[in-house]
Amino acid sequence: MKFLEYTPLDRLNDFLSLLNLGERSIKGCLEAYSCKHTGTDKKLSLSLENQMLDYLGKSSDTDSPSAADFLLSRSSRKTLIYLVLTLYHMYPDYDFSAMKAHQFFTEESWDSFKQIFDTYMFEASKEWIESNGGSSLLDSLYKALDEVVKLAECEIYSYNPDSDADPFLERGAIWSFNFFFYNRKLKRVVSFRFCCLSNLVTEEFLMAELPYEEDGEIFDDMDM
């Protein structure tokens, strides 16, 4: 997997880098990757393939039939491998094989993504129009994604891991979503993660992290 730079994504990333809305902030990031093996990708791919086959062999009637059926297809397993490899490149210090990341992907449609985006990014969309005018945030996102991965040919996946095994989850997160747009023909994938953070929790954490010496300096300057 190789990180790809695309100007259409940069404008959206700049806007979503940290959008302060008072008591909370919206944060988002779009990243594009080529699905060509680099470095240790081949070794990881083989390990992930064996892990999925092992999961299939141990799956029982009580397991989700849709998950097991999806893994029966070689092409589907290959898709999941690309998605998990994308996670590895986004978070190189995190062991996704240990948490069986392939079990947390769900196939979505543009309509289901749009419903989530419209609901949770409503305030961000208002800020976008005020700052940029013209087309809506969703329309701008659609055009950028279409330019990079041709949405009409894309498969869309959401990634919803357990909270204690989620590298996306930041301190103070109120909600968080992770989507992947994969074009099989182009062998290209775009990840889009966006979340809402409580500024109150973040500020409390930063205050708690202040070194004792700095606290002392603050009180030294105060008249007691």
Number of strands: 7
**Whole-number average pLDDT?**
84
Shape: globular
Instruction: Give helix % range.
Output: 40-55%
Low-pLDDT segments, ≥5 res: none
Indicate the proportion of strand residues: 15-25%
Task: Give a quick precis of the structure.
With 224 residues, the chain is an alpha+beta fold.
How would you describe the overall organization of this protein?
The chain has 224 residues and is α+β, with helices and mostly antiparallel strands. It has helices at 7-16, 41-58, 65-72, 74-90, 110-120, 122-132, 137-149, 199-208, 212-220; strands at residues 2-4, 19-20, 24-34, 105-108, 154-159, 173-183, 188-198. Strands 1, 2, 3, 4, 5, 6 and 7 form a 7-stranded antiparallel β-sheet that branches. Helix 2 (41-58) crosses helix 4. The model has no long low-confidence stretch (mean pLDDT 84).
Question: Could you name the key traits of this structure?
Answer:
224 residues, alpha+beta, 7-stranded antiparallel beta sheet, 9 helices, globular
SSE layout and pairings?
Blueprint: E1 2-4, H1 7-16, E2 19-20, E3 24-34, H2 41-58, H3 65-72, H4 74-90, E4 105-108, H5 110-120, H6 122-132, H7 137-149, E5 154-159, E6 173-183, E7 188-198, H8 199-208, H9 212-220
Antiparallel strand pairs: 1-3, 2-3, 3-7, 4-5, 5-6, 6-7
